[in-house]
Amino acid sequence: MSMFPLASFTAGAGGLVSVTFSNIPQNYRHLELRAFAKSNANIGGYDQMMWRFNNDGTTNAYSQTAMEGTGTNTVSCFSSGLAYTYGFGGRLTDGTQNPFGASIITFYDYSSTVKNKSWISLQGAELNGTARVGIYSGFWNNTSAITSIVFQPQTAGAFGQHSRFDLYGIG
Amino acid sequence: MPITPLAGTAAPKGALVPIGNARLATTTASVTFSNIPQIYTDLMLMGFARSTYTADQYDGIGIYVNGDFSTVQAGLGRFYQDWVPTGTTVPGTFGVNTGLVGFFGWRLPPTTFGNYFTTQRYHILNYSNTNTWKTGISEGTSIGEGLAENLTVTTLRTNTAITSLTLQSDRGTGVSQFTAGTVLTLYGVRRVGQ
């Protein structure tokens, strides 16, 4: 496997309201995102990272599933009919906490124009003595090639300082 | 179907850079990757390992940072979530420990279980950053008390950059060690501009 860095973002003191990877080159087999991120808001719990392909906010565009350990339990979830894909697969930590969530997401055959797209990820985070870690997957009910991906926190206003997003092409 | 390499032009700069590799020819108490270059963003450790442990249980591996083997350290703490669906027990087991000394590693099979090695891919994010705590996240197999998938997340509660990693049994090297045939490889993951 060969992996090549395509683009990077790092949140400064003011945070990042969203992160958009646009004009994604179409000459790789797959994409991988590596994120080290937290929200910048005190929401008293975990926040979640949402993302959208090609700015597609259509209802029913996305579905997703998860197997996750919560520290005191294990859960599995499924959601469909979404206008974003998010959540189980994008744990962030509270803005008052120092831990950062880790997300490694692989988007398969992203440049195909004849297949609906899917992704799979390994993600986890600590929050004030609790933690969540799991494997997650999801679908975009669209055959278009992925040319852009936008990430944003579900609840908080922005990604917190030092949050990091790196996109890679996998040859 | 034969698979032939793609014809390449000028090779672009890859993101994964090998830093160190240990292929053990004999039983070995611990493996240390030292003087880790500080020019990458993340580290990725890939392991294929087995333990000399003789009890019919997993042997846990600790990943100790910067030569720190203390059991209690003021200002430091680690946290892991370990989720192990076993294939026969649903939804599996889990654990939480806020008193870890290093990153929580993976579970090695004991020698009593047969000639099995377990795999693990361990990511340590932001290892060279001196402004943030560090997060480790991993996935791999476990064999010893069943066959299992093993997921962990660990927070290393320090802003200090990671310059060395030592892998050894968290039962102590006097209790168990890596067997011959164990392979441990450390990569640097670079981002744009590195």
Short description:
The complex is a heterodimer of chains A (171) and B (194). Chain A is an all-beta fold and 171 residues long.
Rounded mean pLDDT score of chain B: 82
Radius of gyration of chain B using CA atoms only: 17 Å
Instruction: Sketch the major β-sheet of chain B.
Output: 8 strands, antiparallel
Instruction: Count the E strands of chain B.
Output: 12
Low-confidence runs of chain A: none
Note the gap between the termini of chain B: 38 Å
Category by helix and strand content of chain A: mainly beta
Helix content of chain A: under 10%
Classify the secondary structure makeup of chain B into a structural class: mainly beta
Number of DSSP E strands of chain A: 12
Q: Note the run of SSEs of chain B as H and E.
A: EEEEEEEEEEEE
Quick tags:
heterodimer, A: 171 residues, mainly beta, 8-stranded antiparallel beta sheet, 4-stranded antiparallel beta sheet, 12 strands, globular, B: 194 residues
Describe this structure in words.
The complex is a heterodimer of chains A (171) and B (194). Helix content of chain A is 0%, strand content 54%. Chain A has no helices and 12 strands. An 8-stranded antiparallel beta sheet of chain A has the order 1-12-3-8-9-10-5-6, with no helix packed on it. A 4-stranded antiparallel beta sheet of chain A has the order 2-11-4-7, with no helix packed on it. Chain B is mostly beta strands and 194 residues long. Chain B has strands at residues 16-23, 30-33, 42-49, 59-65, 78-84, 93-97, 103-108, 118-125, 134-143, 147-156, 165-169, 183-189. In chain B, a hairpin with an 8-residue loop joins β8 and β9 (134-143). Chain B starts with 15 loop residues before the first strand and ends in a 5-residue tail after the last strand. The A-B interface holds A 1-8, 34, 36, 67-76, 98-102, 104, 122-126, 129-135, 162, 164, 166, 168 and B 12-16, 41-42, 79-83, 85, 91-92, 94, 96, 98, 123, 125-126, 129, 131-133, 135-137, 139, 151-155, 157, 189-194.
